[in-house]
């Protein structure tokens, strides 16, 4: 009888212990701060709560788990007790599997707990997983996008084309709601606007309210403008309009469940960002998974690293344009509305234009990758691409000067990159401020008596006022530099032609000294641009030639004003530099850019 009682006690004790234990494999969760950190198993016993975890990361990057990590159940926090597989507070690198497995042990929690939060301390960048389900395979706190918002996203094509954008200043109102938002998720919202008028990037910020909503006014300068919307969880572009309201709804649960690296609970890709209001048709369709996949697959880093290695500039151009054509053809198969098809094509052309204008970098990067040369290593055996006016016909071909390009989020970058076209046409070499610049300062009436003496001295000694003796001495110096470069460097056929031209100017009595100096500097710079010689090497070589400084002045500056010469330059530097830039702009750059874009005139804002 005693044995029977003992057996029953053991059985019921075992049942009691089992009832206090729980194992959950690959638990679902509400939202995660990082997609590459997952919980593979949760073990709850009377002694502890164990989280079996994995982080996927490159062997080049380390991970670290803080000793302040805790799990949260309701308002209660349970601080980590120990770890297996890693050491807390220590940087850990993965092996070639790109995975680091570890187990974190916490105090025991009630096995009937419905959900917990994993918080790797309270720092902004720390790993966090909210709403880990312990009793259900599905989310018990699912918050879905309102049905009428989802319905509005499925618009019928009206067959209309995009409106032609125009310059118009005003503020767009951007409102939104993050579904399944938690107060400790808040790192705010940043919106970046590239201003094509003044050539700057502007930043606007706001915080998300406790209920997940936000509101932000954003100044714009065109009737349709793509802005970058950045949060802790995702970054993407959206189209806004001044004087109009756009609303955004973010399904954070769908976003996290489809981006997680845990294949056991990963959900299929679906749209998780929805819009209503101004430009909703374009914004909704551009963020469809199939559209995003198509756009991201046209110009991948893998292609731009492995497939372009060894190409000439024109081969690279043909390759990029070919990939662009493939991308536009792929877009045509997605059933997009006419406006969105047109908008997506504009964005793809903007991307292609960006990569074409960055040919120098991508071709060199491909060569370095193929030859296992990091960017600090000398570039040996590389033949720099010849990027000339024929190559830059792309500016006209890609429609950079078309008003529809204002829709493109890359428009600002591409306009700025056109300055490299001028650089490749001939390196821009601005001389010292001309006499006219100093005369403008003199006429302005802003100079003190001593500054007036300095300005008159500098005007008299400007290059165009040099004496015949000084010009002859400088031409001799420039000729000696050209000859030294010819004798010291390995010249190509093109270099020899350039050297002959530079030497001819040096020896010609009719040549202007400004043209002589600029031609020599451009001849020298070509060796650095082609990566055959460094600027440091060339400068050191040229320093061997001595210029007769005794002839460098037409007049002398009074000794009392010498000490104030540098302060004068510092004080009026901006005005003098602006005059130089405007002179170069009007003499050469405007005409060159006008020719590139196929326009009879180019207007520049100053």
UniProtKB/TrEMBL annotation:
Name assigned to this protein: Thiol:disulfide interchange protein tlpA
Organism ancestry: Bacteria, Pseudomonadati, Bacteroidota, Bacteroidia, Bacteroidales
């Amino acid at each position: 009888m005693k044995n029977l009682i003992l057996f029953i006690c053991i059985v019921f004790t075992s049942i009691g212990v089992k009832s206090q234990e729980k194992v959950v494999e690959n638990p679902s969760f509400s939202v995660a701060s990082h997609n590459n950190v997952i919980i593979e198993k949760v073990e709850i016993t009377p002694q502890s709560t164990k989280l079996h975890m994995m982080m996927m990361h490159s062997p080049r990057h380390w991970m670290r788990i803080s000793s302040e990590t805790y799990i949260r159940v309701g308002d209660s926090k349970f601080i980590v007790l120990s770890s297996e597989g890693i050491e807390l507070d220590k940087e850990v690198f993965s092996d070639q599997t790109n995975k680091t497995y570890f187990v974190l042990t916490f105090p025991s929690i009630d096995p009937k707990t419905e959900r917990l939060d994993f918080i790797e301390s309270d720092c902004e960048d720390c790993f966090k997983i909210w709403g880990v389900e312990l009793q259900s395979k599905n989310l018990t706190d699912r918050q879905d996008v309102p049905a009428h918002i989802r319905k509005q996203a499925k618009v019928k094509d009206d067959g209309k084309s995009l409106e032609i954008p125009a310059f118009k200043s005003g503020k767009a109102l951007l409102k939104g709601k993050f579904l399944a938002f938690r107060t400790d998720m808040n790192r705010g919202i940043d919106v970046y606007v590239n201003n094509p008028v003044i050539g700057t990037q502007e930043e606007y910020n706001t915080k998300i309210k406790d209920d997940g909503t936000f509101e932000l006014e954003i100044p714009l300068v065109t009737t349709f403008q793509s802005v970058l919307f950045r949060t802790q969880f995702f970054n993407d572009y959206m189209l806004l309009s001044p004087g109009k309201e756009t609303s955004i709804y973010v399904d954070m649960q769908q976003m996290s469940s489809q981006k997680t690296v845990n294949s056991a609970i990963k959900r299929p890709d679906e749209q998780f960002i929805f819009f209503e209001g101004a430009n909703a048709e374009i914004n909704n369709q551009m963020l469809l998974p199939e559209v995003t996949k198509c756009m991201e697959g046209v110009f991948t880093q893998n292609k731009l690293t492995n497939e372009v290695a060894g190409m000439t500039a024109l081969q690279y151009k043909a390759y990029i344009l070919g990939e662009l054509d493939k991308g536009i053809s792929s877009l045509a198969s997605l059933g997009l509305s006419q406006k969105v098809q047109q908008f997506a094509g504009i964005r793809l052309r903007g991307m292609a234009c960006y990569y074409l204008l960055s040919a120098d970098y991508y071709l060199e990067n491909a060569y370095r990758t193929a030859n296992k040369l990091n960017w600090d290593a000398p570039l040996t055996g590389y033949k720099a691409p010849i990027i000339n006016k024929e190559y830059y016909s792309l500016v006209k071909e890609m429609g950079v000067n078309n008003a529809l390009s204002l829709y493109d989020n890359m428009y600002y970058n591409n306009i700025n990159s056109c300055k490299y076209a001028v650089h490749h046409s001939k390196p821009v070499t601005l001389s010292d401020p001309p006499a006219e610049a100093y005369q403008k300062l003199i006429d302005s009436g802003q100079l003190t008596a001593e500054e007036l003496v300095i300005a008159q001295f500098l005007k008299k000694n400007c290059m165009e006022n040099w004496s015949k003796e000084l010009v002859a001495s400088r031409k001799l110096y420039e000729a000696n530099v050209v000859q030294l470069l010819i004798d010291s460097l390995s010249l190509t056929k093109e270099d020899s032609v350039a050297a002959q031209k530079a030497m001819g100017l040096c020896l010609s009595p009719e040549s202007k000294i400004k043209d002589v100096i600029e031609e020599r500097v451009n001849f020298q710079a070509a060796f650095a641009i082609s990566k055959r010689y460094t600027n440091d090497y060339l400068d050191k070589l040229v320093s061997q030639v001595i210029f007769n400084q005794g002839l460098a002045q037409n007049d002398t500056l009074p000794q009392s004003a010498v000490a104030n010469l540098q302060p004068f330059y510092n004080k009026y530097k901006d005005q003098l530099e602006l005059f130089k830039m405007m002179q170069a702009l009007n003499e050469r750059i405007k005409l060159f850019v006008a020719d590139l874009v196929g326009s009879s005139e180019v207007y520049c804002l100053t």
